[in-house]
Amino acid sequence: MTSSQRKIIHVDMDAFYASVEQLDNPDLKGKPIAVGGGHRGVVAAASYEARKFGVRSAMPSKTAKEKCPHLIFVPPRFPRYKEVSKKIRSIFYEYTDLVEPLSLDEAYLDVTENKKDIESANQIAKEIRQRIFEETGLTASAGISVNKFLAKVASDINKPNGQKTIHPQHIEKFLEELPVEKFHGVGKVTANKMFSLSIYKGADIKKKTLEELTKLFGKSGQYYYNLVRGIHRSEVKPNRIQKSVAVERTFFDDLSDEQQIDDKLKSLSEELQNRLSKHQILGKSLTLKIKYKDFSLYTRSFTKTEYYQSKEEYYRTAKNLWKQRPFDRAVRLLGLSLSNLNTEEKKQVSIQLKIPFEDLD
C-alpha cells in the first residue's frame, strides 16, 4: 500500500501537563503557569497564558521568570499525567489498534481501516477530540493527512483545540509553501544553513536536484527530496521498540564535592535498576551525562559485550566514566542512561492494510 492510500491522524494534547494542573486546581485557570522549574530546574511545560510571554518548555526557570515575572511554578505530578494519558489512549483504541504513542500527550493513529467503519478521518478526529474533552475536561488538537509527517505538521496549525486536514490534492501546494523550519528533521543548524543558501520554503528545496541536495546535506538530502514531494513511508508502529532508559537529576545547588557526586551516582544507579527491573529490560551501553554550571554538556559511554545485570555494575561504570571527564567544574545535572537494549532484539510485525483509499473528508 502506498502512502497516498493511508489515513493518518496525529493527536496532540494542548499544553498537556499545564492543562492538567489547571484542571485539577481551578485557581490556576487563566493564569501563566510553568510545570517544573523552580530554583534551579527547567520548564517542563508552560500554559498558553505563559507562552504569550515567550515561556517555553526546556527553558531555564530563571529565563522564564524574567520573561514572565508573575509566572507560577507548579511541581510536576507524573503519576497524574500518566493516569490521564491512559484514559486518552483508551479512547484511541476504540477506533483503531494502530496507535503509536510518541509521549504521554501525543500519538499517531492509522484509521485507514477503523473499528467503527467511519469513512472520514476528519470525522474520526472530531469524535476523538470531543470524547477526550468529555471524559477528561482537556482539549486536544489534531492533524489529518496521508502520512505521519503531514499529520504532525497539520496538528500544529489550528492549535489549541482545533484540527486541520491536508487532502491529497492539496499536498503539493501545502509543502511548497511550508517554511523549511517546519519540516521534520530540520533543526536550527540545518535551517540556518538552508537560509544561507536562500532556501526558505518547500518550493526552494524542490528546485534543487537530488544530486544537489545530497551534496549539500549528505544522506539527509534524499530525505528532503522525498519529503517536499509528499513521500514519507514510515508506518504507524503500534509496538514502538524502546531504545533507551534514562534517569537524571538537576540539583538545587551545584555539586562539587566528590562524596556528594559519589552518593548521587549510587542513587541514580539504584533508580535506573528499579526502572529496568520492572519491565525486564537489559542493556549493554551505559552513558553518563553531566551538565555543568554554564549549561555545557558532556556525555561518555561504555559498552559491554554482555548485558549489565545490577546497580553495582551501573555504579562502577558510571564512576569510571566520571573519572574520565575533561572538566573539573561544579555540576548542575547528572544522568545515567542504558541503551543497546534487549528490547531491540524483538521483531516488529509489519501490518499491511488492504482497503482502498478514499477522500479523507
From TrEMBL:
NCBIfam families assigned: PRK02406.1 (NF002677), PRK14133.1 (NF010731)
Predominant subcellular localization, coarse grouping: cytoplasm
Catalytic reactions on record: DNA(n) + a 2'-deoxyribonucleoside 5'-triphosphate = DNA(n+1) + diphosphate
Gene Ontology CC annotations of this record: cytosol
Species in which this protein is naturally found: Soonwooa buanensis
Coiled-coil residues: none
Cofactor note: Binds 2 magnesium ions per subunit.
SUPFAM superfamilies noted in UniProt: DNA/RNA polymerases, Lesion bypass DNA polymerase (Y-family), little finger domain
Taxon lineage: Bacteria, Pseudomonadati, Bacteroidota, Flavobacteriia, Flavobacteriales
UniProt record, GO biological process: DNA repair; DNA-templated DNA replication; error-prone translesion synthesis; SOS response
Descriptive protein name: DNA polymerase IV
HAMAP family: DNApol_IV
Enzyme class: transferase
Domain UmuC: residue ranges: 8-187
